[in-house]
# Entry
Amino acid sequence: MAFTLNKVMLIGNLGNDAETRFTTNNLSVTSYSIATSNSYKGKDGNWVNETTWHNVVSFNLPDFFKESLKKGKKFYVEGRIQKRDYTDKDGVKRYVTEIISDKLIPLEGREGRETSSESYGDKSGGYSTAEPDVAAAGTDDDLPF
# Structure
């Protein structure tokens, strides 16, 4: 099997407060958007600022993260890109591209200033989460390398 990689790393500010809902199996699903920006010189020689919005979904976040995912806060998000489609109430097929987060690290302290000393969760200083099916996939013995 050929090696493939689907990895996204973002540092940006939340565009809205996170929304959490629960599945029928009592699995929490938290959705939020993060804005990243890019600057470049336009054809006229002036700087142009471009903002890109990313839809992010996190599974089984601890309450601390659910409460701290507020509009304007800066976060590091690591995960993978997923595309899906669904049919809305009017029968129109909709397409969605979103980031399924595996790791989430707050980059601001409680007072709103940037910090690298406050970190939460796993050994790398953030919170790791995986989609339930991915987490239950097996042990390292199942890996082909």
